[in-house]
Each structure stands twice: as structure tokens, then as C-alpha cells.
Hints:
By secondary structure, the chain is an alpha/beta fold. It has two domains: 3-54, Spermidine Synthase, Chain: A, domain 2 (Roll), CATH 2.30.140.10; 58-282, Vaccinia Virus protein VP39 (Rossmann fold, 3-Layer(aba) Sandwich), CATH 3.40.50.
Amino acid sequence: MIKRFEETLYHDYAQSFGVEEIYYENKTAHQHLIIFHNAKFGRVMVLDGIVQTTERDEFIYHEMLAHVPIFSHGAVEGVLIVGGGDGGMLREVLRHKDIKQVTMVEIDETVVEISKKYLPNHARGAFDDPRLRLILSDGATFIRETDEKFDVIITDSTDPIGPGESLFSHDYYRGCKGCLTESGILVTQNGVAFFQAEEAKKTAGFFQQLFKDWHFYSAAIPTYVGGIMVFGWGTDNAMLRKIPLETLEARYRKSGIATRYYNPAIHRSAFALPQYALEIIEKNKH
Ligand code: SAM
């Protein structure tokens, strides 16, 4: 049994985990999946050699990618999650009681089944919520073929390597825009800017063409090494990025949701990016 797991996302730099126990390791129809236990981060999911999520720090990523668009919008009824097979995003979205339906389009059924079994603290029963419609398909195909509209679309995908690649294309983003309701918001997992600048730069170039208001917001998740992860933000309603703090506080209180990272002040400040990130997305042009 392997005693250590070394991430292979970067050729010349890696994070390494002690492996106390391996719960699952196999190739699925789409990617190589490992779930192991690490003393510091609890259960860890790896896909194609890249850390996807850990029990210890998943709340930061899932709270920020779910609650920022939903509290900004203020009247979300339908959400689309593309990816998200571990169930953490689904759990956070479904905590909003006014949400009527969550459609989740996940390409890899094995990731869902194995997550239900070995990452129970991620979904915490969310896969059994009657508001969930789970579609096992490529997200890009679903977006191309559906005529449905959503108030919030969350791309909770792997990096643009392997099956995730199609979720970082102009076609996919243009398709998502066509699937948004009038004040709909698209948010995307867009990598760690310090190491994956190209990812954010490319997405910024597409969003600039597609949305009346676009930007990125950020959070630092320990196992997405290299500092802040940036989340793409695209909408045609520019007001949604400027919701007053008092309004966000009222919505947060009314929701009754107890979070461990998200709060209205963090929500607002997350859109303030460091200069190097603004340069990557070329928003520092005076
Ligand atoms: N939090 C992680 C991150 O930021 O890297 C993402 C976690 S989640 C496990 C990523 C999910 O995206 C996986 O379940 C994977 O199967 C799914 N996925 C990758 N490509 C996809 C595609 N084209 N369509 C739908 N789901 C996809």
C-alpha cells in the first residue's frame, strides 16, 4: 500500500500527504479515482493525480462557490451544478430552503457512488433530497442540448485536464449564458491564480465577450496549493456584484444557514483581488 501520495498537478512542485488508509483506488470510465485517509485533512479524493476535495477544508470552497451567487441573486429557484460528484456543493446549495430544484450534471457515476460510500460527510444525505435531479452526462453536452434556464449555474469541475477540459471552452461558457435566466449568474472553479494564471486569463477573455458584468472572486483553500483560488463570475446584471452589505446580512440571517467560512463581509471582500490577479485577468488597465 502506498505510504505517501504526491500530487502530480505540477511537474516541478508537489504537495505530499501521508496515507493512513486507502478506501478506494481504481480507474472509472473517465478518470483515475483514489480516496484515502490523511491525518491532517481526513478523507481525501484524488482524480487523475490531482487533489479534488478533503474533509477538513472542503467547506471553504463549497460555501464560497454556492452562497456568493445565491445570496447575491436573492431569489434563486433553479440551480445547475456541473460536476460536483463528491456532493459537497449539492449539500451547500440545498441548505437554501427557497430553492425549488437543483439539477446536477456529473459525468462520472462512480465518483458519485464512491463519494456516497466513502465521503459521507460531504453530501450528508443531499443526494436523497427530492429537489435533486441528477443527470449522469458530460456537462458540455447537457449545456449544448438543453433549453432549460437556471438562476445560478455552478461549474464545480476538475481542472481543464481530461473530462474537465470541455468546461473551460468558449462554447461551454456561451452555452451557459444561454441557459441563464434574466438575472442569472454563472460561477466557475477557475484554479489557483498564482500557479494556473492561464486558466483565469482564458476564462476572463471569454467572459469579457459574453457578459455585461464579469469578474473573479477568491478564497484560499489549503489543499489547492499556491494561495487564492479564483472563481469566475459572469452575469448581465451588474447590480448583483454590488449588493449592499446590509442586504447580504439580512438575506444571510433570514436563511438560517450556519456557515464556517462564508459571511456577508467575506462575500463582499472576496471580489477585491490582488494586483497580480488583476493583471492576469487584465483588469488593471487604467
Ligand atoms: N472541488 C474540486 C476542484 O475545485 O477541483 C472539484 C471537485 S468535483 C469531484 C469535480 C467533478 O467534476 C468530478 O466529479 C468530475 O467527475 C466532474 N467532471 C469533470 N469533467 C466533467 C464534465 N465534462 N461534465 C460533468 N462533470 C465533470
